[in-house]
Structures are given as structure tokens and as C-alpha cells.
Amino acid sequence: MTAATMDVAQPRRLSLRGSLKRNRRWALILSYVCLILFAIFFLAPPYYMIVTSLKSNVEVAHLSSNPWFIADGVTLRHYLDLLTKTLFPTFFKNTVIVTLCSVAITMVVSILAAFSLARMRFWGSGVFATGIFLTYLIPESLLFIPMFQIVRSLGLLDSYWGMVLVFPMLTIPFCTWIMIGYFSSIPKELDEAALIDGAGYMQLLLKIFIPVALPGIIAATIFAFTVSWSDFIYPMAFLYSGDQQVLTVGTVTSLIRGDVYEWGMLMAGALMAAAPPLVVYAFLMDYYIAGLTAGATKG
Amino acid sequence: MADVALRKVVKRFDEVEAVRGIDLDIPDKEFVVLVGPSGCGKSTTLRMIAGLEEASAGEIYIDGTLVNDVPPKDRDIAMVFQNYALYPHMTVFENMSFGLRLRHAPRAEIRQRVEEAARILGLMEMLDRRPKQLSGGQRQRVAMGRAIVRHPKVFLFDEPLSNLDAKLRVQMRIEIKRVHQQVRTTTVYVTHDQVEAMTLADRVVVMNSGNIEQIGPPQELYHSPRTRFVAGFIGSPAMNFLPCRLEQNGAGMSVRFTEALSFPVPESRAAHYQPHVGKQLVFGLRPEHITDPRNQDRTDRHEFTVTADVVEPMGMETLVYFRVNGDEVCARVDPSTAAEPGRPVKLSADLSHLHLIDPASDLVL
């Protein structure tokens, strides 16, 4: 290219690209500032718990010690004492049994209910489906007294098996609602193709619907797991003996005696109790979010 | 033997009668196409044959057996859906073998049948893929393969090409015809596209508003439609319809459109139309029978000149639109014909293909 060709007049270009880049840079900076602030706000309590669980009792009790740093050296004493000198392992075992049973009952009932309400045309199915969801809107504390009477009449008071009866009551409505939405989004031609291929309704559910709706099933399972693992009010009201209690209630009642708070063990217990849901969410969070949103709209 | 028979079949949805007492006989191995506009009842009829809809009245027979109360899986039919309805979590092999696996067929037989169908449809390289890894045409072939492996008595196709682009539709049409020639199974095919109906069918059933308008081979429907609806539905571009008056004078019988424009009725047809002389009728003539006058045999042809309104060059032909008394008429001329909008153009009408329709009953005379 010669200098002569360079003299050709270039049309004036609008400088949109430059201003857009500048705006985007500011938006990005602002986003990061907000995200960092939120991260600090939400991660501060778990960080505080970790630090406290690794401090000695003396340092925890000392009013002038820095709550955010360990000055006197790390100790695992609280974790060891929790596992060996308290009923924490029993609480953990009870919680695992209650959660697994509650989740299993919830998923079996929800999937069968959602399949029949979403797919089988029968009189009243619409009313049933709405009614199931409406029961979820009742605050759980309002159901204390009737549930107490039912659990007592069944001889399950002060037994963690009573929780296996109570928790599905709390989880089935919402899980059924999620599954109805998800099953409804599956094209009806899939049912028809399977029926023509020779599938009965149970085969249709097991071989087609469950595999296709797996993200929604995982989302409902996570919800049921979270409720069953972390509920406090019902175990507090229905379980009294130490060997029947679950993590949420047992940890607090056994480590707070009058005005004496075993802070180190309390923090260690809270962290160990939070670990399983954390693991579940870490691996299945994408399914949870996809399941909640995908089931909400008709495909 | 796998014939299908419908006797006075009715389907009501609340107070709406979607299918109104139709009778239809489909012999063994025949390829029958149900064609008609949206809402005419063709898909509902197909779904009643499949058992996906229950007939409100009437009887449905497959291979001589009354199947009204027989569930779909026991009717020995296979269906191909408009949106393929492939199982998204299964591979192509698993999709095609699903029906056989449900029936506990031996593994060797399953493999042999699936591979046979895959070879016919060109799917051998794709057996391990999932539907989301396939194109639209490939998915439709898998859906057809799933139907073929069952060796059913009847194939049912519910607008299988509607979701494909125009080019792919042509390719798949040929594919379906080739498969039918190889597999030779009674087939009921539903479409709203009359080109598909004409090219695929042994016989076409034209439906309108829940009724059967006419049944016959494609050429019979094209040349001898019995109603105005069939005459206008079959053929693209559609048949031209013009109100006219049937006249007779010393020169012979003619149809008059305006003071200035009339066409002579061929002598061979005059006797047939004699009872209707003096009546207001509807004149029907297909665009392909109004052409340019060059190199045409003059028998039963009438040349006339009109002013072109719109000219559409299609490449292999040109469509010339003109008006007669406000009604639009379409002619198909050679692409070399000099036709321009607003300019006179000389045309030739092949009146041996004219149709006269009674406007009161819409029946072709």
C-alpha cells in the first residue's frame, strides 16, 4: 500500500464501541464489588464457626481474643470430644436413618402422585393437584397439635420413627408439585409412542418418565433431603430422650446446659452437621436449579 | 392379511363432532393417505385406529377383528409421529428395540431386526447415538425404524414430514415410498399437504369438517373431483373457479363469464351438460390447463387475450395472474412467454379439462 492510497478519506465512525467498552468495564467492577461484599457477608458466619471450633476453650472464653484468627494454636480437641464424649454419633445416625427413610417415602409417593395427576385423565385430577399444593402453604407450626395427637396415638412419641411419619407430611406436597410441573412438560407423544410399543403405565413410569424427568426428581430429592435433615421444630417437640434425638436438636440440647455453652463443640457439631447437605448441594446444585425452573414451564 | 375397516365411526369432543360417521375400507398392503385442511378430523381418525382415542360410536376393524376395546399395544400397529417422539435418554438402537424388549423378544432376534431396519433406512452408523445428536431427517428415520422392527400389521403415520424443511421433506417422501415398496405393509398416512398425498398414495381420502369428501386414486381425484372442495384442494396452484352462465345458441354450448368473454364447451361434453343450460354455474379449470398458445394441439382449445395483473417467474414455468369480473385467475405458461404486469397476454385454455359445478350443492356436474 502506498502513501497515496492512505490519503483516501475514511468515513467518520461513531465511537459507540469505545463507550460500550467503558460502560461494561464499570458494570463489571460494580458487580465484583457487590459480589465480594455479599460473599463476605454470607461466608463470615461459617468462617467464624470454623475458627471457633479450632480454638481452645480458654481462647474462646477470653473476651479480648480476636474472633477471626486463632492466636493460641489450632486444636482438634472439640471434634474428638464431640465424637467420643457426647451422643453426637447417635444423633448423626438417627438423622441419617430419618432422612433416608423420609426422602424414600417422599419420592415414591410424590412420583406416583405426580404421574397420575399429570398424565392420567380422571375426574377431579385438577382439583386434587391444586389441593396438594395448597396443603404446602399451611405453616408447619399450625399442625403441631394434630400431629402430636396422631404421633402419640401411634405410640411413636419420643421415637425418631415418628419423624419418619412427620417429615413426608412436610415434603410430599411441594415435591409432588415440582414433579407435576416436570412431568407435564414431557410431550404426550412420548406416552403414546410407549403405549403403542407395548408399555403399561408402570413401565411407562419406570422406563420413560423417571429417566427423562431425572433432573426434576433430583431437585425434589434435594428439597426433601434438606427439610428432613435440618428441621428443628418437630424434633424439638416430639423427641425427648437423648438416644432418639436428631442432629439439629441433640447438638443444641446436649451442649447447652443452663447458661453453660460449649462453644467449641457447638461450632464443631454445627459444621459436621452441615457437611452432608453441603456435599449434596455441591454435586447436585446444577440439577436442583435446572429442575426447579424447567418443571415450571410447559415444554 | 391386514385390512382396516371403519364403519360409521363418530368422534365427539363434548358437543363438537370431529368425525361424523365415516365409512372406510383399506385393503391389505394398500397405502392410503388421509388428507384435508386443519381440523377436518384426519388425525382424530388415525388416532382412533391406533387406539389413542376412543370412538364415540361406530366400529373399527383391523384384520377382521373388532378393536374398539382393544388397547393400542394389542392392536399390532406401529405409529410414526409428527415430532418423532423418540425416547431422549435411549440410543438409536434402544429406541428401535424398545417395543421388542418389552415383549421379551430374544436378543439375537432383536439385533437381527434392528439391523435389518437400520440397513433399509441407512442408520447403521448411528445406532449408538442419542436423538439429540441426530438431524431432523435422521430422527424421522429412527422413528420409522422403530415402527418397522415391530413387523406390525398396519403402519400409521401422523404428518411425519411437517416438521422438516422443504428440501428434506422431498427426500423423506421418497424414502417413505421406497420403504413401503420394500416392506409392503398396510399404511394409513395423514397429511395436510396434497402433494404428499398425490405422490405417496395408492388411494387418497379427502376429508373436510369430519366427513369424507371423496376416495380414489390420486389421478382420479385430480381429473375427476366430485365436489368443489376436492377440486380446489387437490392441485397446486389451486383450481380456478369463476361464476358463469351456461348458454346454448346456434354456434353451440358455451360458458359466459362477461359480455366480452365466453368459452365454448367441447362437443363431447355438451350432452352431459344439456339439462343445465341457462343456469348459473361455477366454472373450474386448473392453471396448468391455461397456457400460452404456442405449439399446442388446437382440439378443444380456446385462445383469448387478457391483461396480466401479476407475473410470478418460477424458473421452470411462469405463473400469470389476471382478473375476470374481479375474480383472480391463474395461468401456467412457458418461462419464455413475454408476460408483463399491465400488458396484454395471449393465452390458450384446454377446455377438455373443464369442470362445471352446481353452486347450490357444490357437486361437480
Overview of the structural elements:
The complex is a heterodimer of chains A (about 300) and B (about 375). Chain A is an all-alpha fold and about 300 residues long. Chain A has 2 domains: about 55 residues, no CATH class; about 220 residues, MetI-like fold, CATH 1.10.3720. Chain A contains 14 helices and 2 strands; from the N terminus they run αααααααααααααββα. In chain A, helix 4 crosses helix 14, helix 5 packs antiparallel against helix 11 and helix 11 runs antiparallel to helix 14. Chain B has about 375 residues and is α+β, with helices and mostly antiparallel strands. Chain B has 2 domains: about 220 residues, Rossmann fold; about 120 residues, OB fold (Dihydrolipoamide Acetyltransferase, E2P) (Beta Barrel), CATH 2.40.50. Chain B contains 9 helices and 21 strands. In chain B, the strands form 5 sheets. A 6-stranded mixed β-sheet of chain B has the order 6-7-8-3-9-10, sandwiched between helices. In chain B, strands 13-12-11-14-21 form a 5-stranded antiparallel β-sheet. Chain B has a 4-stranded antiparallel β-sheet with strand order 2-1-4-5, with helices on one face. In chain B, helix 2 packs across helix 3, helix 3 crosses helix 4 and helix 4 runs parallel beside helix 5.
Strand percentage of chain B: 25-35%
Helix content of chain B: 25-40%
- Structurally, the number of domains of chain B stands at 2
Strand order of the largest sheet of chain A: 1-2
Q: Give the tally of β-strands of chain B.
A: 21
Shape by Cα distribution of chain A: globular
CATH superfamily of the largest domain in chain B: P-loop containing nucleotide triphosphate hydrolases
Radius of gyration of chain A: 27 Å
- Strand order, main sheet of chain B: write it out: 6-7-8-3-9-10
What is the approximate shape of chain B? elongated
Largest interface: pair, residues per side: A-B, 18 and 23 residues
Question: In oligomeric terms, what are we looking at?
Answer: heterodimer
Provide a count of the helices of chain B: 9
- Residue share in helices of chain A? over 70%
Kindly report how far apart the N and C termini of chain B lie.
38 Å
- Strand count, sense and closure of the main sheet of chain A? 2 strands, antiparallel
Compressed to H and E, one letter per element, the order of chain B equals EEEHEEEHHHEHEHEEHHEEEHEEEEEEEE
Helix-strand sequence of chain A:
HHHHHHHHHHHHHEEH
